[in-house]
């Protein structure tokens, strides 16, 4: 790879990082929100390195047209960089012109449900009906709350759709990350008594716990008998298990 192209790769990568982190929220498709300052700093640093390299190269070329030794002084225009280095232009250009989408149904359908954190003491549930809950909170109430207060309560959950196995309901999902999309894990609630919307559709589901096993223990199914399913907006940050979004009418 010739020296000018190496410089261009640095600048393109920096501009791409700034595009997804400084000027848009596309970075939320790949990393946690708290990493935004690091991405902005990295993008700015790459651009500065590219500009500094370009200035240095131009000065050396201007002072001595033979000063650039990338071609070994033989005029062949080769450097020690392997040909595969050209492939690095692909991710740089993708950040500029086509940012890959966030993970969704394909990933969630191939993962087992994440084990939610254990909780011993539960606060009283608000009196609201339907009661907005996260998928993680619903899971904990079903499998850990021995007071069984979730029984008979109408709850409201949101997430995206994946199909179930052998036609036995479908799943409402959320993907959670610790650092970036590479470590994403899913939280799932099985939905009964209503046809499945198309995969990857974000929906709000109103319903009651689907009986089975012993409520408040791990034998209880994390499932809902749906009364209503409505399409809702996809959140800007899809890697959170947030409370339900406002319904779209």
Sequence of secondary-structure elements? HHHHEHEEEEE
Widest sheet: strand order? 2-3-4-6-5
How far is the first residue's CA from the last residue's CA? Answer: 55 Å
Helix % is: 25-40%
Q: What is the number of helices?
A: 5
Radius of gyration: 26 Å
Would you kindly provide a written description of the structure presented here, covering whatever features stand out?
The chain has 249 residues and is of the alpha/beta class. The chain has five helices and six strands, in the order ααααβαβββββ. It has helices at residues 3-21, 36-63, 89-97, 105-108, 135-144, and strands at 131-132, 155-163, 170-176, 185-192, 202-209, 223-231. It has a five-stranded mixed barrel with strand order 2-3-4-6-5. Strand 3 (170-176) and strand 4 (185-192) form a beta hairpin.
Secondary-structure map:
Blueprint: H1 3-21, H2 36-63, H3 89-97, H4 105-108, E1 131-132, H5 135-144, E2 155-163, E3 170-176, E4 185-192, E5 202-209, E6 223-231
Parallel strand pairs: 1-2, 4-6
Antiparallel strand pairs: 2-3, 2-5, 3-4, 5-6
């Amino acid at each position: 790879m010739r020296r000018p192209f190496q410089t261009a790769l640095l600048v393109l990568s920096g501009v791409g990082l700034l595009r997804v982190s400084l000027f848009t929220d596309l970075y939320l498709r790949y990393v946690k929100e708290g990493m935004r300052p690091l991405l902005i700093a990295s993008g700015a640093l790459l651009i500065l390195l590219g500009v500094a390299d370009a200035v240095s190269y131009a000065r050396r070329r201007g002072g001595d047209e033979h000063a650039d030794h990338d071609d070994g002084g033989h005029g062949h225009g080769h450097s020690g960089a392997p040909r595969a280095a050209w492939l690095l232009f692909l991710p740089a250009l993708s950040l500029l012109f086509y940012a890959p989408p966030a993970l969704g149904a394909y990933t969630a359908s191939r993962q087992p449900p994440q084990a939610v954190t254990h909780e011993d003491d539960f606060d009283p549930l608000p009196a609201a009906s339907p009661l907005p809950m996260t998928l993680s909170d619903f899971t904990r109430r079903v499998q850990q709350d021995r007071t069984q207060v979730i029984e008979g309560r109408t709850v409201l959950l949101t997430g995206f759709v994946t199909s179930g196995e052998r036609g036995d309901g479908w799943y409402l999902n959320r993907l959670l990350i610790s650092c970036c999309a590479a470590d994403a894990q899913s939280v799932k609630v099985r939905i009964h008594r209503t046809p499945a919307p198309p995969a990857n559709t974000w929906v709000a589901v109103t319903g009651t716990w689907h009986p089975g096993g012993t409520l408040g223990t791990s034998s209880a199914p994390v499932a809902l008998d749906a009364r209503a399913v409505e399409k809702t907006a996809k959140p800007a940050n899809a890697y959170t298990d947030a409370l339900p979004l406002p319904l779209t009418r």
